[in-house]
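Case study 2.
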Amino acid sequence: MTPKVYINGKLFDKADAKISVYDHGLLYGDGVFEGLRSYGGKVFRLEQHLTRLWNSAKAIRLEIPMTREAMAKAVVDTVKTNSITDGYVRLVVTRGAGSLGLDPNRTSDPQVIIIADKITLYPEELYQKGLEIITVSTQRNHPAAISPRIKSLNYLNNILAKIEGLQAGCIEALMLNHKGEVAECTGDNIFLVRGGVLLTPPNDAGILEGITREAVIELARASGREVREVPLTKHDVYIADECFLTGTAAEVIAVVKVDSRKIGSGTPGPITRDLKERFHELARS
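Prediction:
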C-alpha cells in the first residue's frame, strides 16, 4: 500500500506530497510540529499533543488554519487511511509560502501536513540492555533567546548535539542548559532514580514539556513513588541508582552508562523496568 500524506485537507501519495520551495518552514524553520504515537489504532494523548501544538503556534504568532476538532479528525483519519495500528504520526504546521526574506507578513496559506508511518528509534536490543550516552558541549537553547518549550521546526540546536553524540559513538546525547544544569537529551526527557525517588529537571531548566514525560510522572505517583522536579547536575547523573529517558518515539528506555561512567549496576534498574511496563499498559489500554 502506498503511504498517503495529508496536506491541507487532501491526501497525496508519498511521492506526490509536496509543498512550495518558498515555504518559510523550509527556508527558515518557521513552523511548529508534534510527534504522536498510535497504539492499536488509537492516537495516544491526542488532546495533550494538540494543546502543545496550539501553544507552540501561539508563541510564534502562527495562526493554525483549522479548528482543533478538525485537526484531531484529520490525524485520526490519516492514521486509519494508512492502516497504522502501532505507528508514529508527524503533524507539521508551516508559516506557508512567501517571498525571500524573513517577513512573515509576506507569507500566505499555512501548510498543515500529517504523516502516519512506522518508526523504530532504537533497536530492541538497547531496550533490553540500556543506552550509553555522553554529555555534549552543545547547550540547550537559552530560554531568553527562544523558549525550549516551543516545538518548532528549527531543530538545529538538537541536531548539532546529536552529531556530537554520534561522533562519540552514542546515538543519544545529554544536553546542559546555560547554567550548566541537566536539561534533556537531543530528543528525549531524562529521569534519575536515587533512593527510590524519581528526579527530573523542571520546566524552567530549558526542557520541552514532554507528553510521555508527563505520563510517566503520573504513573510513578499513582504507584506510590515520589517524583521531584528539581535542578540537576552531571554529578547527580553520575551517582544515580538508575537513569532512563522518555519520549514519544523512544517511549521509556534505560541509560546504563553516561560519559563512560556506569550508572547503578550497569543494567536497566527495577524502577525503570516497572515504569516501562506500566507505560506500555497505559498506552495500549
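The chain is about 30% helix and 25% strand.
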